[in-house]
Amino acid sequence: MAGLAGLAFSQDGRTSTTSERKTLLRQLSKVVAVTAAAVGLALGIAASAAPAHAALPPSSRCAVAKRKAAVKRLRAIDACFAKPPQPPDPECLAKADGKFQREFLSIEARGGCVPETGDAPGVGHLVDQCEAALVQVLPGTCLAAGSECGGLGAFCCTGLVCSGRLGELPHCN
């Protein structure tokens, strides 16, 4: 048995010695190393071609930060809608607005914004309009059979279709 330790069998039944296996492993290691080097070089070239964050103009960085703040406010308002009571607690909504206002002031204090200040109320109003539209389209309820339907608001419950005759209000059927 000790004499068989240096032999390995391939799928076609041939035998190979330990030295042949070592040679194959060395060749395979070289292929892997060359492939890894090529991938590393390609990634390095791709990374160097990508624009650096510092190359973004300050006004653009400010605008992106303000948009992120607006999305955070929308998420905070949605969090107020996600828990009782309904409609949301005014304190929860005020907390979301206060955090948004502070974040806007912080962004504007860094400088580079165009306009420099004063757009928080307008952006806040847009967030409110977006939330109101989403609540209207996705109210979390559905209309039962026979209910008037159509337009914005709740949709017919599963299995029902909003339909009607010309000149009549549509109903869930």
Notes on the protein architecture:
This protein is mainly alpha-helical. It has three domains: 8-49; 57-138, no CATH class; 141-173, no CATH class. 54% of the residues lie in helices and 8% in strands. The protein contains four helices and six strands. The chain has helices at residues 18-49, 58-81, 90-109, 120-137; strands spanning 7-9, 15-17, 142-143, 155-156, 162-163, 171-172. It has a two-stranded antiparallel ribbon with strand order 1-2. It has a two-stranded parallel ribbon with strand order 3-4. It has a two-stranded antiparallel ribbon with strand order 5-6. Strand 1 (7-9) and strand 2 form a beta hairpin. The longest helix has 32 residues, at 18-49. It is flat.
Main sheet attributes: strand count, strand direction, barrel closure: 2 strands, antiparallel
Number of domains: 3
Mean pLDDT: 79
Q: Based on DSSP secondary structure assignment, what is the total number of beta strands?
A: 6
Strand content: 5-15%
| General shape | flat
Distance between the termini: 83 Å
Helix content: 40-55%
Strand order of the largest sheet: 1-2
| Alpha-beta classification | mainly alpha
Helices and strands, in order, run as EEHHHHEEEE
Low-pLDDT ranges: 1-11
Count of alpha/pi helices: 4
**Radius of gyration, whole Å:** 32 Å
